[in-house]
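Late entry, written up from scratch paper. The run itself happened at the end of the previous shift, but nothing got recorded in the book at the time, so transcribing now.
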Amino acid sequence: MNKILTKLSLLIFIFLMMIIVNNKIEANAEESNVNAVHIIDPNDNKVITTIIPQPYHIELDLPYFKSQVQLIVKKIANGSATKSGYSQKMILDRIDPATGTIIKGRPKMTLDEDSLIEKIMELSFTGGKVYLPIKISKSGYDENEAVSLGEVVLASYTTRFNPNRIGRSKNIELSATSINNVIVGSGDIFSFNDTVGPRDISAGYQEAPEFLQGKIVVGIGGGICQTSSTLFNAIDQLEVKILERHRHTRDIGYVPKGRDATVSFGGLDFSFQNTLGIPVLIKTYYSKYGSITVQIRTSKENEYMLRNLED
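Output as recorded:
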């Protein structure tokens, strides 16, 4: 009986010691995380990541610690292969040609990286929560005026192509449709690649001749540069800011020499910023007989304001 009591007492002692040790570990863990910085998504109040500074980092090697914080913030802003970042380009609104209603895009979202880094560094000594400083910029137009944006033609340009080249003609048609009825608000940035998207078979694009490093090759989407070049020659008649444009290495024939805008998805882009002070509407007209026209339109009221500003 005494042996049984002795074993039982020993088991109870071991059990109590395990509880004490576990509590000590948890206490140490909490103590070590006392300066943890929790970065929170302001949209749902959820913690997206936690930074736990080590004392030797912030006391002995602060520049190194800051460089690691910068990498973390950069990843939060730009995202990864599996997760979108919090800094995202604007997707411009467009008008549905069938119903006349607005098809909403997405506002521009910008993570203030410098502000976030500064706040994390401040809290690294005490710990705490920091909400992502996100700035949201909406398109620069009033939805109520969308219906009148097609009233007046501010600029227009037409190029021609051989309609018997079926693949190339189809690619021009698809890319022209992609930029048709896009609203470019005041201050907005238009990107051809972002608007048209990937030029692949799943999107209906076909094989056609195209220029690649000065040589004519057959590729999926050949011909879309005629759409981007026609758009450039239309919009360039107005006082907008051309942000990116590249020329072919050879003359391409459908526009005057040096007046082209070559593009490739994931690479060369044609983009501009609407600095007119008024919103505009991009209209495209594709003819199966071999022509594409791009018009830049706006409302009568906007045209009046634009002309007065120019004067």
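The chain has eight helices and 16 strands.
(Scratch paper discarded after transcription.)
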